[in-house]
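Pipeline run #58 for the internal structure catalog. This entry was flagged by the ingest filter as a single-chain record with no existing model, so it goes straight to prediction. Upstream metadata was stripped on purpose; only the residue string is passed forward. Reviewer on rotation: M.T. Logging verbosity set to normal.
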Amino acid sequence: MNVTFLGTGTSTGVPVIGCDCKVCKSSNPRNKRLRQSALVSQDNYSLLIDASIDLREQCLKFNVKKIDAILLTHSHADHILGLDETRVFSYLQKKAIKLFGSRNTLQGIRRSLWYCFEEGVPVGGGLPCFELIEVDGKFKVGPFEITTLDGDHGFQKVTGYKINNLCYMTDYKYVPQKTIDIAKHCEVLAINALRESPSHPTHLTTGEAISVIRQIQPRKSFLIHIGHSVDYDEISKKLPDGVELAYDGLQINL
């Protein structure tokens, strides 16, 4: 199973529009962060986790030519507005793309992309074609055994996923004990870590993420959904063994 981090940034991306901070002005490519998305591939089956605003750029940059299904964590703009870009894939593949998510997430998709679901909307330049599938618990997608991982985004629920032995958890503020128990001793954990400080009302800090990592005890962990106060080189030196900052284009094999 191959995992490609297509984007590792928070909702603004990095650099942030109009910002002159050190990280936003950095020449280090690992400080350039598109919005959060990842691609999991195995046996010629491609599973996208979230469809970020930057999905078109990500697909061109990292040579993504096929998307069979999409796991959605929640319906915030930075995680779903790239869904419109998937019309190219549904057209070329001549079939609907399966979208998996919680009931609330799928309701949000129907509101935000209403034109994909109402009868009588002219196709025009093309519409995405989706099959919405509500999930809660264990299910199978292509070659992947998947279990939902409930999380709290501070004011709403968010869904992470255990995909075979990868656990992917983004936009968490609180991690329920049930989720920790399911993720325990996974091979790889990807978890959001917005910044070092101060505390944030809807996202984990690096310290909070490391606390969760210590409870889950994965073999390897990658921090994702990273803001512009995080300098790759500086923060990497502070992280414990087995914990790394993810970066756009990072590939891992499980």
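catalog note: The chain has seven helices and 14 strands.
catalog note: The first helix runs from residue 55 to 61.
status: ready for reviewer M.T.
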